């Protein structure tokens, strides 16, 4: 028997064996100001960078409507940003620093950076010449040192903290609720003016009670929760999905702030 048996292409997958990745597409978000934010979406990426979600659009409009008291000259962190429209709108509206984050997957992060670069001409320059909008990968609940490093130090020399957290369509991941709370506690400035915007749509309406468990967990972790709106949009995002259509078209908005007890303890 020959010792130099050759396998040839025996172990090579035939052409077309694996489905090709869907090519990236583009979507547009119309700002209330009349400007248009155009973003690239990540094909059919399993981490949902492939859609422009209703909660993201609604968050962006809320940011515009409340720019003066919420955004201008503030430091903003977006968690689970996907295409990053709320972060981009925050930068356009004059936030001092915006850090746009999602899961540290190379495709997602590079796409967020692409969108940040695509919108650069719409973002006003800072007087000190520093960038307003930054992009980074971040896993919920992990160390926040690199996120806080984008901010100037606090008066006591400690790493900076954020005035505003944007959390659009992240509470659907029920097992991640403790990690989201941990990130909130470690990134949000201890001030009565600091706020986390938690905005979501129940795309699986039968799981809404589990999704809403995030809010009593937040209250038990040193925060106060206030419902700020409930809006019904024109169309569902996934037409063929089961469940109550009215709920699948509804966007819920909440503000989460530090409790008075937490604020008092931080001054003690």
UniProtKB/TrEMBL annotation:
Record's keyword annotation contains Metal-binding: no
Keywords for the protein's UniProt record, in alphabetical order: Cytoplasm, Methyltransferase, S-adenosyl-L-methionine, Transferase
GO cellular component assignments: cytoplasm
Entry's Gene Ontology BP terms: methylation
Keyword Cytoplasm: yes
Sequence positions that bind S-adenosyl-L-methionine: 53, 80-82, 102, 140, 168
Gene3D superfamilies referenced in this protein's UniProt entry, alphabetically: Vaccinia Virus protein VP39
Enzyme Commission number: 2.1.1.-
Predominant cellular place of this UniProt entry's protein: cytoplasm
Domain of life of the native organism: Eukaryota
Locations listed in the record: Cytoplasm
GO molecular function (one): protein-lysine N-methyltransferase activity
Pfam families with a match to the protein in the record: Methyltransf_16
Entry similarity comment: Belongs to the class I-like SAM-binding methyltransferase superfamily. EFM7 family.
The protein's role, per its UniProt record: S-adenosyl-L-methionine-dependent protein methyltransferase that trimethylates the N-terminal glycine 'Gly-2' of elongation factor 1-alpha, before also catalyzing the mono- and dimethylation of 'Lys-3'.
Name the record gives this protein: Protein N-terminal and lysine N-methyltransferase EFM7
Naturally occurring in which organism (per UniProt): Penicillium brevicompactum
């Amino acid at each position: 028997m020959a010792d130099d048996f050759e396998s040839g292409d025996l172990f090579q997958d035939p052409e077309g064996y694996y489905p090709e990745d869907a090519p990236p597409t583009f979507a547009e978000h119309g700002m209330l100001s009349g400007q248009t934010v155009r973003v690239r979406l990540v094909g059919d990426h399993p981490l949902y960078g492939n859609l422009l979600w209703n909660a993201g659009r609604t968050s962006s409009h809320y940011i515009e409507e409340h720019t003066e008291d919420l955004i201008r000259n503030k430091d903003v962190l977006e968690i689970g940003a996907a295409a990053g429209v709320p972060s981009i709108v925050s930068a356009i509206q004059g936030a001092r620093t915006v850090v746009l984050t999602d899961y540290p997957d190379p495709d997602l992060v590079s796409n967020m950076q692409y969108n940040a670069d695509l919108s650069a001409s719409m973002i006003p320059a800072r007087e000190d010449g520093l960038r307003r909008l930054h992009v980074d990968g971040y896993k919920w609940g992990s160390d926040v040192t690199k996120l806080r490093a984008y901010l100037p130090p606090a008066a006591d020399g400690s790493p900076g903290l954020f005035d505003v957290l944007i959390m659009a369509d992240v509470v659907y991941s029920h097992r991640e609720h403790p990690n989201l709370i941990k990130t909130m506690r470690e990134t949000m400035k201890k001030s009565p003016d600091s706020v986390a915007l938690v905005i979501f749509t129940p795309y699986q309406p039968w799981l809404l009670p589990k999704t809403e468990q995030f809010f009593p967990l937040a209250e038990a972790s040193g925060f106060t929760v206030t419902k700020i709106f409930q809006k019904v949009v024109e169309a569902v995002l996934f037409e063929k999905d089961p469940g109550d259509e009215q709920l699948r078209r509804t966007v819920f908005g909440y503000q989460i702030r530090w409790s008075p007890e937490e604020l008092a303890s931080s001054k003690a």
